[in-house]
Amino acid sequence: MSLVAKIFGKGKGEKGPTPQDAIQKLRETEDMLIKKQEFLEKKIDHELATAKKYGTKNKRAALMALKRKKRLEKQLEQIDGTLSTIEFQREALENANTNTEVLKNMGYAAKALKQAHNSMNVDDVHDLMDDIAEQQELANEISTAISSSTGFGMDMDEDELLAELEELEQEELDEKMLSVEGTGNMDPLPSVPTTSLPSAKKKEEEDDEMAELAAWAT
Fold it and tell me: 67, 79, 119, 136: which has the fewest C-beta neighbours closer than 10 Å?
């Protein structure tokens, strides 16, 4: 059995403490030593006050107080060193515990990634992408064929259609010009008489009667 096992009572084959347990134990030890520091500091102040109190009046009592003060200061220095060591050890454990958790999570993620890639093959991925591109090209060709006017009697000469459109526009323009000239330069035609004109014979008779009246008057 090792010396460490003898000190901590650990037998062979027994599982060691976890980092979390060790960190907790170190924190408890730190709290205990800090309380011990505070107690020693109070004792040192008390012994110093005692030495001052007796001074030259009771030299023996003053010296004894100073000796106790020195022993207490020595203990205080030892506690300071112990606290520094414990603090360093605790920080090292905390860092190790953090690194362990990080590595554990990274390993878990690596296994998940490997599991995800187990069902994948690079060649299969390339083949799939080629199939997708081929189907997309086929879909574009189908759309182009459907939207094309070929085969539905719609294949016409665009120049011919433009020429016909120009003729229609010219005809419309000519009609507008004729309409403007007819209304602007010609006087309105007289209305057609509604009464019938006298015949030529009747007019001759009236002329004879008028001649006779003229002769009788002279």
Answer: 119
User: At a CB cut-off of 8 Å and minimum separation 6, what does 162 contact?
Assistant: none
Contact (Cβ atoms closer than 8 angstroms) between residue 50 and residue 65 = yes
On whether the CB atoms of residues 17 and 11 are closer than 8 A, the answer is no
pLDDT in tens, 127-182: 888 889 999 988 988 888 887 655 555 566 778 878 888 888 888 888 888 887 66
Burial (CB count <10 Å: 0-12, 13-18, 19+), residue 16: exposed
What residue has token string 């081929």? 134
* Sign of the torsion formed by the C-alpha atoms of 8, 14, 18 and 21: negative
pLDDT higher at 76 or 152: 76
Please give the structure tokens belonging to residue 206. 């009236």
Please state, in angstroms and rounded to a whole number, the distance separating the CA atoms of residues 71 and 79.
13
Burial 34-48, CB ≥16 within 10 A → b, else e? eeeeeebeebbeebb
Helix (H) / strand (E) element for 183: namely helix 158-185
DSSP string spanning 82-150? HHHHHHHHHHHHHHHHHHHHHHHHHHHHHHHHHHHHHT--HHHHHHHHHHHHHHHHHHHHHHHHHH--T
Centre a 10 Å sphere on the Cβ of residue 23 and count the other Cβ atoms it contains: 19
Residues in the chain: 218
Sequence-separated (6 or more) residues with CB below 8 Å from residue 139:
none
